Amino acid sequence: MGHSQSNEHSEVALTQIQELYKKFASECPSGNLHLHEFKKIFGIGSNCSAEESAYVENIFRSFDTNQDNTIDFMEYVAAVHLVLRGKLEDKLKWSFKVYDRDGNGRLDKREVRHIVKIISKIRRHDNSSGGEEMSPEEISDRIFQLVDINNDGQISLEEFIEGAQRDAWVMEQLSLDVKPCGWFLEHTNEPTKP
């Protein structure tokens, strides 16, 4: 019909939304995704650590934008789009939101150390490279040295984004590992049908 498809890779296509809705409706007939279902998406079961479970709970809360303890379809589509196709700055803003457990718009060392501990434990569980590892406390301290520009003991959103963009090590440490299992990716990576 003469539509330009220049935005085809920058936005979720209508056919993909339809496929996502079918999957969402079949897995969540209530129309809402609850925490236990969200954990299933990320492969978090009874054999996972408390840290992995807490990490996924933080991610769930960050996607539950209306804070009703469920993720509706619109929140689900926004989450899929962010995780799979979001811009770096949007992903960093989202990561900041996950780190900012008290929601005050600033990260203190306790909040950073909490997420760094979880991520470190998950990374160690996922790959045993045997390389030299810093402790979560050392990682948190170094992040603050490199990112807390005004040395006030807190990291603002601006400092978080600028620090991550300026330093590859900081980016690696601050990036949240979001590795949903096949349930989540099943329909999002399929090529759209003509």
Feature tags:
194 residues; 10 helices; globular; disordered N terminus
Topology at a glance:
Elements: H1 14-27, E1 32-33, H2 35-41, H3 50-63, E2 71-72, H4 73-85, H5 88-99, E3 106-108, H6 109-126, H7 136-147, E4 154-156, H8 157-166, H9 168-174, H10 182-185
Antiparallel strand pairs: 1-2, 3-4
- Give me the Rg, rounded: 18 Å
- Give a short account of the largest sheet: 2 strands, antiparallel
The largest sheet has its strands arranged as 1-2
Give helix % range.
55-70%
> Overall 3D geometry?
globular
H and E order: HEHHEHHEHHEHHH
User: Which structural class is indicated by helix and strand composition?
Assistant: mainly alpha
Query: Could you name the ranges where pLDDT drops below 50 across 5 or more consecutive residues?
Result: 1-10, 181-194
* Total strand segments: 4
Distance between the termini: 12 Å
Strand percentage, roughly? 5-15%
Q: What average pLDDT do the residues reach?
A: 78
- The number of helical runs is 10
Describe this entry's structure for a reader:
Helix content is 57%, strand content 5%. With 194 residues, it is mainly alpha-helical. The chain has a two-stranded antiparallel sheet with strand order 1-2. α3 crosses α5 and α6 crosses α7. The two termini are 12 Å apart. The model is unreliable at 1-10 and 181-194 (pLDDT under 50).
In a nutshell, what does this entry contain?
The chain is mainly alpha-helical and 194 residues long. Helix content is 57%, strand content 5%.
